[in-house]
Write a structure and sequence with these properties.
By secondary structure, the protein is an alpha+beta fold. Helices cover about 35% and strands about 20% of the residues. The protein folds into 2 domains: about 140 residues, Creatine Amidinohydrolase, Chain A, domain 1, CATH 3.40.350.10; about 230 residues, Creatine Amidinohydrolase (Alpha-Beta Complex). Strands 4-3-2-1-5-6 form a 6-stranded mixed sheet. A 4-stranded mixed sheet has the order 8-9-11-19, covered by helices on one side. The longest helix is centred in the middle third of the chain and has 22 residues.
Length: about 375
């Protein structure tokens, strides 16, 4: 589906729900128009007039992309094709520019404005002052009906992201050796992702390591990054590639430093059995998201490790890493063909061995179709 087709379908849906829509530079906007996102920063970076940064559109008007001069010039967006571009000078008034754009849309006296869920608070405040009689609704919710079902072209792009992720992982494995630190492994992963064609990691690359002499520590990078990893320890990988088209992969495997004990092998085998059950349950038109979660969770519960499966089975994925719906109890979304989910069961133990596996899977009538299939057996580094 082309960007023009996506835009037309969105405008058809928008017409009954809002008079205009605003999307900042985001996955929503990239889906509709192809306007790319930049690699995110940890700390905020802003340019003069940054609150207006994004695109306006209406049911009958083509998008107008408003950008501060520095965003357009230094972000490489000044020569975009296929979208009307308005560039704000460093000392120009952003309110005047937005008012002019909206005047061209000929809005009613009490307009309904759909805005992205990711619109900054500064932007929302400015729009309230500018259109005080407007009613604001979620543009993300309107667009989600289109984004949740992936076309075969989108699935092909996700396969591409998965192939890059698997190739990077293969070369990471060749570098693993006892005594490496968690930070050294993470740096190798991020290097290999870019070396194989990714823009970079689609989210912060993470490892979850545990064993009898290596306690599992969640969210304490200042402690886990410098730890040297010696047998016996299980190393749980969680990472993925983002490609130039903006699609994000999410992937997980387990490595054993040293010959695995009977318990570690059992934990690993249960996780793999759980994933297989979840994939089989990913039947479009048959099961719901909660039923898929339950099918996979039952395997681990029956194996005696239910409390160590500490999270939902998975999430939808595409231009964002985490997208609704979710494979979890309480989410009763009926699966539809073309939905993409991670299937990522795990058993995580604080003072013993852990295991996880993760692949992106397409919902199909006869069960899920995995996009990555490598390394199904426990990987052992002697």
């Amino acid at each position: 589906m082309s960007f023009n087709e996506r835009l037309q379908r969105f405008q058809e849906q928008l017409g009954s729900q809002a008079d205009a829509a605003f999307f900042p530079i985001s996955a929503d906007l990239q889906y509709l128009t192809g306007v790319p996102r930049d690699t995110p920063n940890f700390g905020a970076v802003m340019h003069p007039g940054a609150w207006l940064e994004g695109a306006w559109l209406s049911p009958k008007h083509e998008p107008v992309l408003a950008l501060p001069r520095m965003t357009a010039e230094f972000g490489g967006l000044a020569d975009l094709e296929g979208i009307q571009l308005r560039i704000l000078g460093d000392w120009d008034d952003p309110t005047t520019m937005v008012r002019d754009i909206l005047n061209g849309f000929e809005l009613p006296d009490n307009p309904r404005i759909a805005i992205s869920d990711h619109t900054h608070g500064e932007t929302v405040s400015a729009l309230h002052r500018l259109i005080s009689n407007a009613t604001f609704v979620s543009g993300t919710e309107i667009l989600r009906k289109l984004r949740v079902i992936k076309s075969e072209d989108e699935i092909a792009l996700m396969r591409k992201a998965g192939a890059i992720t698997e190739s990077a992982f293969k070369d990471v494995l060749a570098q693993l050796k006892h005594g490496m630190t968690e930070l050294e492994i993470i740096m190798e992963i991020d290097y290999q992702l870019r070396r194989h064609g990714a823009l970079g990691p689609s989210f912060t690359t993470s490892l979850y390591n545990s064993g009898p002499d290596t306690p599992l520590l969640f969210g304490q990078r200042e402690k886990t990054w410098p730890r040297k990893l010696h047998p016996p320890v299980s190393i749980l990988f969680d990472f993925g590639a983002v490609i130039a088209e903006g699609y994000c992969y999410d992937f997980g495997r387990t490595v054993s430093f040293g010959e695995p004990s009977e318990e570690m092998q059992r934990v690993y085998d249960l996780v793999m059995e759980s994933q297989a059950a979840g994939i089989a349950a990913l039947q479009s038109g048959v099961n719901t998201t909660s039923q898929t979660d339950a099918a996979a969770r039952k395997v681990i519960e029956n194996g005696g490790y239910g409390e160590a499966f500490r999270h939902r089975l998975g999430h939808a994925i595409g231009l964002d890493v985490h997208e609704p719906p979710f494979l979890t109890a309480g989410d009763e979304t009926l699966l539809e063909e073309g939905m993409l989910f991670t299937i990522e069961p795990s058993i995580t133990q604080f003072n013993s061995f852990s295991a996880r596996v993760e692949d992106v899977v397409v919902a199909r009538p006869d069960g899920g179709e995995k996009l990555t299939n490598s390394y199904q057996s426990l990987i052992v580094i002697d």
